[in-house]
Amino acid sequence: MDEQRTLINELLLRPVSSGNAFEETVQRLLQTVRLGLLAPGEGLPAERELAGRLGVSRDTLRAALASVAEAGYLVSRRGRYGGTFVSEVLPPEDRINAHSGRPGSAATPAEIEDTLVLRDILEVGAARVAASRSLSPSERQLLWTTLADTTAADGDDYRRLDSRLHITIGELTGSSSLVPLVADLRTRVNALLDGIPLLGPNIAHSNEQHEAIVIAILTGQPDRAAMAMLEHLAGTALLLRGFLE
């Protein structure tokens, strides 16, 4: 039991380290449950303690707990003996294959990592190159309009418009060879994303990150665009690793 508690402290009860506080908190919670460090029916630490240990606000923690609960991994109980507990029956481990895109065909951790590494290489580089170019008025308008459409999208359309924004950034590099690579990569990413729930706080955070990326591109700041894209991709990677690995 002491060894298990040590593992929980090491995996869950340590300060969140990235700029993606919500996403990393979700990943920590999922990792702790899916590795079996907390048994079905076992309670999590009290909210105040958990937020303090993780170094996140209670609002961020509550949003993360609600998202993981909505996915079926946690339940909340009210009353004198209330709190947040691991679900007695956990969701099945059905996943999406990152290469085939077939539902129910599990992506291996190696395939997930391959997709995420390729994404860092292609999309961070694309943001840097797009920001270093002198964009035409029509290109600038296209990027800003695509951002606005993505920000305004609801759950049903969000992933499609999110994909269009990322592919548009690839188009703005001026490399015709890059666009089909980014499009193919996005198909692989979406196959993974289809295996996890759409989380409202993550969408809101992604929209803020999208805006930072687009503004850096439009103001000609390659390093800032690359860093903003890298942080954005890191948030998505945290969720994919948390739910799928």
Question: Could you list some keywords that capture this structure?
Answer:
mainly alpha, Arc Repressor Mutant, subunit A, Four Helix Bundle (Hemerythrin (Met), subunit A), 2 domains, 3% strand
SS field, number of helical segments: 10
Number of strands: 2
Q: How many structural units, i.e. domains? A: 2
Radius of gyration: 19 Å
- Largest sheet strand order: 1-2
Describe the structure.
The chain has 245 residues and is mainly alpha-helical. The protein has 2 domains: 2-86, Arc Repressor Mutant, subunit A; 109-244, Four Helix Bundle (Hemerythrin (Met), subunit A) (Up-down Bundle). Helix content is 65%, strand content 3%. It is built from 10 helices and 2 strands. It has helices at 2-11, 21-34, 47-54, 58-70, 109-132, 137-152, 155-171, 178-193, 200-218, 222-244; strands spanning 74-77, 83-86. A two-stranded antiparallel sheet has the order 1-2. Strand 1 (74-77) and strand 2 form a beta hairpin. Helix 6 (137-152) runs antiparallel to helix 9. The longest helix has 24 residues, at 109-132. The chain is elongated. The two termini are 25 Å apart. 38% of the residues are buried. The model is unreliable at 100-104 (pLDDT under 50).
